Hints:
The complex is a heterodimer. In chain A, about 0% of the residues lie in helices and about 50% in strands. Chain A is mainly beta. In chain A, strands 2, 4, 5, 6, 9, 10 and 11 form a seven-stranded mixed beta sheet that branches. In chain A, strands 1-3-8-7 form a four-stranded antiparallel beta sheet, with no helix packed on it. Chain A is globular, with a radius of gyration of 13 Å. The mean pLDDT of chain A is about 95. By secondary structure, chain B is mainly β. Chain B starts with a strand and ends with a strand. In chain B, the strands form three sheets. A five-stranded antiparallel beta sheet of chain B has the order 1-3-8-7-6, with no helix packed on it. Chain B has a five-stranded mixed beta sheet with strand order 2-12-9-4-5, with no helix packed on it. In chain B, a hairpin with a 4-residue loop joins strand 7 and strand 8 (about 70-75).
Amino acid sequence: DTGVSQDPRHKITKRGQNVTFRCDPISEHNRLYWYRQTLGQGPEFLTYFQNEAQLEKSRLLSDRFSAERPKGSFSTLEIQRTEQGDSAMYLCASTRSGTTGNEQFFGPGTRLTVL
Amino acid sequence: RKEVEQDPGPFNVPEGATVAFNCTYSNSASQSFFWYRQDCRKEPKLLMSVYSSGNEDGRFTAQLNRASQYISLLIRDSKLSDSATYLCPGESANQGGKLIFGQGTELSVKP
């Protein structure tokens, strides 16, 4: 499968625990995006990387959230001291900059439930 | 005002019907727009890109009206499998290319 992959697909955790999600983009894509989606809403932008550089972070990304893309390939999103309000689907998308239109392709998402 | 607004629906239509959705956007600097479909509890999947005035792909036609700041999606001869939520993000005007989504429009096609 050459699409975007995410791991785990589901995560249930207790409030206060730390969680980490992984995203593997399409191999030739240099841009990687993280979004969050709650029920009945469209995805909301969190942050994005061009190669290994994190170039923009949303105000939604509190200091409990951190993202990395150390070698410009896969990325991780960590949430520290999880809260019930963090429960959502976390989506990763990738694209190749410089191509017409910046078409982004999404992974299957990680569904987080904080108890 | 939200950057992208969509009629949340749901649109309930019979098989074979023609249905149209509209999106309005407030950021006139956005260059590119897209239609994605999202099935329940799945990821958004790219349906069409809309760069200039419009696109057609089989039963699906997308139109962009920059002067009025809206895009539309027309689905002809709707199928049961078209049932999904349709999203119309615009690309942010800054260099990063992040997508700005509305809440989506739910379509339910009935036999």
